[in-house]
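It is worth pausing here to work through a concrete case rather than discussing structure prediction in the abstract. The textbook approach is simple: state the sequence, then state the predicted structure, then interpret. We follow exactly that order.
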Amino acid sequence: MSEKPISPLRRRMIEDMTVRNFVEKTRNDYIRHVRTFTAFLGRSPDTATPEDLRRFQLHQTQTGVRAPSMNGSVAALRFFFTVTLDRPEMARHLTFVREPRKMPVVLSPEEVARLLEAAPGPKYRAALSAAYAAGLRVSEVVALKVSDIDSERLLLRIEQGKGRKDRYAMLSPKLLELLRDWYRIARPAVWLFPGGDPMLPMTTRQLNRAVHAAAAVAGINKRVTPHTLRHSFATHLLEQKTDVRLIQVLLGHAKVDTTALYAQVATNTIRAIMSPLDRLALLTPEKNRRDQPPA
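Step two, the predicted structure:
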């Protein structure tokens, strides 16, 4: 069965993204968003007008498309019109949607311990432990190679993380012990956590399923994903009074503002702060407080 031929317009867009060294996921996402717009339009997207773009965004809003998806469409269509079609004036008719910033779900240290204990097997226990112990993204966990472990310097090499940046993450002695136990069991050749095919890494979907199963067994009712362990890593470090700028480096955040969000969920830190009301009480003489009539 022959593959469906690619239109010249799509081929040109793919070439434009390839020249700019876009990663495969971004290329696929951009093509998908332009295809969705084309289906809405009912004709070739290179014939679109500013009014068509306005109607498309209105349609997305009315059908309940979430802000991240809408913003993904905006980025893809801006690229399509500005670069591929050389119609930069169209880009100003596309509006990014403000995303509500929600506080991340964070597990307590006790919940993390229960979750890791309930992991379905040594491979997933080691992988989820890496996510928590080093604050890794799920994509970074599954992409780990055996050669990325620097046991002498206690470092994990993260290749091409978010933003296509390399960095080093911390490798705790306890995590190193877990990884060595896993290595003795499986003897992975290339990928530290191989999938069904030993020559391919575990998928992010597999790790997601594993953490959901572990949360159910551990009796954790919060909405837990592998990224929850990264949130918990940052929050627990902040509660241990680790400098936020150091946490920023460990997480690979470009802006410290992103890291500072964890201060809102660092409950130990919040509880340790003295309220101005309590401080005021310390300044009020004991006698004056006793003389006050009861409420």
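Step three, interpretation. The chain has two domains: 8-93, 109-270. The CA atoms of residues 105 and 115 lie 14 Å apart.
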